[in-house]
Structure formats: C-alpha cells, structure tokens
Design a protein that fits this description.
about 700 residues; alpha+beta; Four Helix Bundle (Hemerythrin (Met), subunit A); Hydrophobic Seed Protein; 4 domains; 4-stranded mixed β-sheet; about 55% helix
Length: about 700
C-alpha cells in the first residue's frame, strides 16, 4: 500500500514532540543525549524520513534542489551533523559500549580527545574553564543550530504537504511588514530584514501584541536565520532598536514566549551581546541544573507568573505582592542581567550590576528605576543568604537587613526576585521550608521599615497571647502552660511562632520535669515533611545522637532549632523530609516517636559515621570543602559555616565533631542546594576560646567533610 505522506509527517512530528518533552524541550541539559535530545542526530534523521516519504529527496543536497533548504542551510546542517556524529563516535569508543549521553564521567575525556586543554595554573579560578565546558559550549551551539534548522525544514515540508488546503495560504495583514499565516508570523518579503533591519526586533513585538499567534513561519525563520550578520554593533546602538527592545520588555503579556523565541533564533544574544557570552555556559556549582541562559529565562518566567492570575495558586503571597507592583519590567530587566556576568572571573553580582547600569543608561530608563534594577542585580543573593544562614529571631539581624534594603519597595522587589531565582536553579532546591524562611524575613523586615521598633518583651507577650488562643481551641486546662513557660526565656519565644509554642505546650505541660525523653512528631504545618520535637534532660552529644538517628532512618534534616530551658532540658524542634512521606506519614510518625525515644534512652558511645555514596555529578565536579568559624557581632557565640558536596550522613559527621569537643549548639540552619550543602550553626563552648582548639576543630571538620 502507498504510504500516506501527510499521516506519516503528523506521526513523526508527534513522536518528535514527545521525545523533546522527555528532555524538557531543551538542548541545554547538563548531560544531553547527542542522539535523542532536542538538537540531536535524531532531529536530522526525522527531516530526511519525512522528506523521503513525501518524495522530496533522500539527502541534504536533494532537499536543496527541491527548494526546501538553501545552500547555506545545507552547509550548516552538514557541519553540525558531522560534529554530533564525531562526538557520538568518541563517546562509544571511550565508554567501550554504546553510550549516547554526554555524561559527566566522559565529558572531560571526550573534550581531551578533541584537543581541548585546561588553562594554566595562573588563571583566575573564577574564570577557569575546564576542557569539558569548552566541549559542551560547542555542543550546545551545534544543537541549537540543528534545532533552528529542524524547525525551518519541517515547516517547509509541512507547507508542501498542505498545499491542497485552501486555508493554509490565507494571509491576514498584521501591519505593513507582517502577515498572520495560519497563526504564524509571515514576513511580507524575503528581503524584509535586509531592507529594514528595524523589523527584526519588531517581529517579536508584533508577536506579543497579537493574541493567537503561535510562532514564526518558515519564511520568517529563514529570513531571521540569514539576517544574523545584520545584528552588529551598529544594530545594537540604533536608537530605534533600543526603543523596540524596551517596548518588548514593557508589554503586558507574551514576554516569556517572546524571549524564548528570541533566544531560539539567536536574536537575543546578538542584540544583548553580553547575553551571547553565557549562551550554553554550564554551571558546576552542584545546585544549578541548567545552563546560565536557560536559568535566566526560567527566572524571567517565574517572575512573569507572579503577575498572571492563572498562576496565583502556586505562590499566593508572591502574587498578592505582585498585584500591587506597578512596573513589572523592573524585575524582568533584573532577571535578564542577574547572572549575565558568570564565568568572567570576579563577583558576577557586581559585574552584572555594572552591565545593567550601562543597559539602563543606553535605553533611557529613569534614574530611580535604574537604581532599583541595579540594586536587585547586585544584591540578588543577599536575601536568601540572610534567611538561610541567620537567626531570624534576633532583632539585630532584622534591623541590619532592613537598613541594607532601605525601603519597602526595594524589599518587595528583592523578595519576589529571590523566590523566582531559587525556584529556577533546580527542582530539588526549592521547598516549603525555604519559602517560610523568606516570607518570615520579608514580614519582619517590612515591620522594621514601617517604623516598628523591635521590642522583645512586647513581641514575646504577643506570641504568648496568640499561643493561648491556640491552646483554648484545643480545650487545654486553664493556666496549664505556666509550669513549662516559666522555664523558657525570650529566645525560645522569638524563635517559634504561636502555633509551634501551643503544640509544644500541649505535648509537654504534663511532663515538664520528666526524666524520660519525650519525642513527638506531626505533619509539618508547611505541607512538606514532618516536624519533630525532642524534650529531654540535656546532654553533651544530644544533637549528634538525633542526627545519627535521622541519618540511619533516611530522613533529611531541613532545619533544627535548639533550645535549652532554664531547668536544664533540651527542647529541640526539627524539620525533616523523606521520599516516602505522603503515603506513609502515620507510620513514620509512630516510628520516629518510638525509635528516637529508645535511641535517646540508651547510653553508650556515638556510632561511627557511614561514608555515604556521592552522585556521579559530585564525583566529576567536586567542590573544595570550606569551614568558617567566627564570633558573632556580640562576641557571645560563634558562627560556624560549612560548605561541601552533599552526601548521606554529612550532618551527623559534623555533629559528632562538635560533640567530641563539648560544643553546645544553639541554632542549626541546614541549607541543601541540589548536591551542595551550605550549613550554618550558632555554637558555644569553652574550646572556642582557645586558638589551638579552634584550629583543631576546623581541621577535624574539614576531614569529616572531605
């Protein structure tokens, strides 16, 4: 039977879409499949298959003769196909088997086989480029070109197959330069961009301004592809083009899709030359899972969603704040520039701030708006660092951060931007606990900026009143809280909200002077994980024993609030997560309450830590462990900061070292960023007063982290 060319085309394009969706529709995965990923060899094979089925040719030269591709496009296809084939062949040889994925383990070996060499030892470490990074950038450029050419040729073949459909050729004018052709933007003439380069950026403005447009027609894509040489320094400095780009950023809708389309067609990197430098740039910080340009566009998407009603359910508080924000484009520009200076050496936040200042000046952004944009780029890491590494119950921390931010407008912008940025690093990095920390910091700072002078005594009384209301809802006996609360100082009430205080009180009011450990757990009020409370006579290695239990039971600690009552009892609260929580939380709660109680009851030395396995990514791109031990601003306690590659049992190893040196823990901020940890501990102990002991502690911690 004769093959139905149109049905075959539809089937193959649907297969292509399904295959692309498996790889998140991007060629920029950190471990791409050079055959199956978007922009891989399979995309080129699909073109030839559907062309052959339609009787349009069996090879690239035949497609050119049939008018489906230009000589230049065929040259580009052959060059990039050869690059992909060579990478695949060397992958197979180096792996000793069929291996189409450019996995971390093999990237460097493949790069060396191409002759890429690392820079010398004198190179600034922040600008150090591994051979694997050079290889991957060239791979991404090839994959991007294949993606563009695949789209052009498939659209061309589809047009040939649909010639018999009357509606396909109907053109609806959009303006003097563009038509709507079956939902695609069609240029009025093939040489439009040659005659009028201003129309290049106008293409994307028109795309935003007309609802129902799905993309660019093959004629438009080809015209853009062949007009890349026009986008030079003169094009970038043209006042008309600058005004058009500014209008694109300020449109009320369509920005995310327009920017993605501009990046796919290479227009974004050719207009914003600094953006071109980070296209396809890998990030080996163990928590970003996207290339820099893809991360930037995802941050832009996240910010945009705060202003779209349909996405209000995702982050209601962010959407509430965004509804009162008058200039969304301020956040959009900050998103484009916040990581644009990565890979240069130096502080990318500072360098990015200089770049965005230049951009704002060139594009006529008002001084106050430009200053806020520059502030967001320069400080885009600050809020997450304060929220995840500082004691938010300390009024001095809030006052210092409020002074740094300066205004409620800047605070709101920084909060929205920080949430969008963290969410765009990796699906594993964002969680409800990080969201709560940021929201708590925002609310406390907002009160401080509004003229609210921190009064610890008044704050404690307010939380106690709110906790009493919660207790009344649970029919708690009158004044049953007095015995427990008499043993708690202001620090406890400042670090816990009213709901947590009421929960602790309900569970402990009858056990204030017990000698038996009390362990209680519940589903976290945040909706993710469990909240675990431990109340027991204090002991030196208590934190280490608790960490050891959670480690052996496959729980990950997100946060630990450590408190010692005036009666000498530990009242510690942990936020923990596990992969099996949703369906088995009742069994897990019962298990923790029984098993952890037994662990704390039994005496004996701490068990040896297990050397947990590390991921392939950590093996391929290890980071140097870092330990920082400094006194806090009041000189009363010490701040311990650690940074290392994540692995099972890491926190227990740290806790064990602290217990060995009789170090008391006041607060633990456990911050897991993908496959990297950035943990902060507030500690006290006699050993910290002696330089020799400090060095010994730091050395042992580095050994434990290695």
């Amino acid at each position: 039977a004769d093959l139905d060319a149109h049905a075959f085309f539809v089937a193959k394009t649907l297969e292509l879409q399904q295959r692309h969706s498996k790889f998140e529709d991007t060629p920029y995965a950190l471990e791409p499949n050079c055959k199956e990923s978007p922009g891989g060899l399979r995309d080129l094979q699909v073109i030839l298959w559907v062309a052959k089925a339609a009787g349009l040719g069996n090879d690239w030269n035949a497609l050119a003769k049939a008018g489906l591709a230009t000589a230049f496009e065929v040259k580009q296809i052959k060059r990039n196909e050869a690059m992909l084939r060579l990478i695949r062949a060397r992958l197979h040889l180096l792996a000793g088997r069929r291996e189409d994925r450019l996995v971390f383990d093999l990237q460097n070996s493949v790069a060396l086989s191409f002759g890429y060499r690392p820079p010398n030892d004198a190179t600034d470490k922040r600008a150090f480029v591994r051979p694997s990074e050079t290889l991957m950038r060239h791979y991404y450029w090839a994959a991007k070109a294949v993606t563009q050419l695949n789209q052009i040729l498939l659209l061309n073949i589809e047009e040939r197959l649909n010639k018999q459909t009357d509606t396909f050729d109907i053109l609806r004018p959009l303006n003097a330069r563009f038509f709507d052709k079956a939902g695609m933007i069609e240029v009025a003439s093939d040489d439009l961009y040659r005659r009028n380069p201003h129309a290049i950026l106008e293409t994307f403005l028109v795309y935003q301004q007309h609802e129902g447009l799905k993309g660019l027609s093959v004629r438009t894509l080809r015209a853009l592809y062949n007009a890349r040489d026009l986008m030079d320094g003169k094009f970038r400095n043209d006042p008309v083009n600058r005004e058009t780009f500014k209008q694109i950023l300020m449109q009320p809708s369509g920005l995310t899709h327009a920017m993605r389309l501009m990046n796919q067609t290479s227009v974004l990197g050719r207009y914003l030359w600094v953006f071109r430098k980070i296209v396809g740039q890998m990030q080996h910080d163990l928590f970003h899972v996207y290339t820099v340009d893809q991360h930037i566009l995802m941050v832009l998407r996240n910010v945009r969603r705060f202003f779209i009603v349909e996405h209000t359910h995702e982050y209601p508080f962010c959407s509430q704040l965004a509804s009162g924000w008058d200039k969304p484009w301020i956040l959009y520009i900050a998103a484009l520039f916040h990581d644009i200076a990565k890979g240069r050496g130096g502080d990318h936040s500072t360098l990015g701030a200089l770049e965005v200042r230049r951009f704002c000046k060139q594009h006529g952004i008002d001084f106050d708006d430009a200053r806020l944009i520059e502030f967001l780029v320069r400080q885009h890491l600050t809020m997450s660092q304060v929220a995840q590494k500082s004691d938010l119950g300390d009024p001095d921390v809030i006052a210092k951060f409020a002074a740094h931010v300066g205004s409620e407008r800047a605070l709101t912008a920084l909060y929205l931007f920080t949430v969008a940025d963290i969410r765009a690093t990796s699906p594993k990095v964002w969680n409800a606990w990080k969201g709560k920390l940021l929201e708590d910091l925002y609310r406390a700072t907002s009160r401080a900026l509004g003229g609210h002078i921190p009064d610890i005594h008044a704050e404690v009384q307010e939380r106690q009143r709110d906790a009493l209301v919660e207790l009344a809802l649970h029919t708690q006996p009158f004044e049953s809280q007095k015995t427990l609360w008499a043993t708690l100082d202001a620090g406890y009430f400042m670090r816990h909200d009213a709901v947590e205080i009421a929960w602790h009180t309900r569970k402990l009011s009858q056990h204030v002077h017990t000698q038996t450990p009390i362990v209680r757990a519940r589903r976290s009020p945040l909706g993710e994980g469990l909240q675990v409370m431990v109340y027991t006579p204090d002991q030196q290695d208590l934190f280490a024993r608790i960490c050891g239990y959670f480690d052996r039971s496959s729980f990950s600690i997100q946060d630990a609030r450590i408190h010692t009552t005036e009666a000498g009892y530990a009242l510690d609260t942990f936020q923990v997560i596990t992969t099996h929580l949703a369906e088995h939380y009742r069994e897990l709660i019962s298990m923790i309450e029984n098993d952890l109680t037994q662990v704390l009851t039994q005496a004996g030395p701490l068990p040896e830590p297990s050397r947990g396995r590390v991921s392939r990514r950590v093996k391929s791109f290890p980071i140097q462990p870092r330990v920082s031990l400094k006194p806090d601003e009041k000189g009363q306690r010490w701040l311990l900061n650690i940074s290392a590659s994540d692995r099972v049992g890491l926190l227990y190893c740290v806790a064990r070292v602290l217990a060995h040196h009789k170090i008391n823990l006041n607060l633990a901020k456990v911050n897991t960023l993908g496959e990297r940890v950035e943990d902060t501990f507030l500690i006290q102990g006699a050993a910290l007063q002696h330089n020799r002991d400090q060095i010994e502690i730091e050395t042992e911690l580095l050994d434990a982290l290695a």
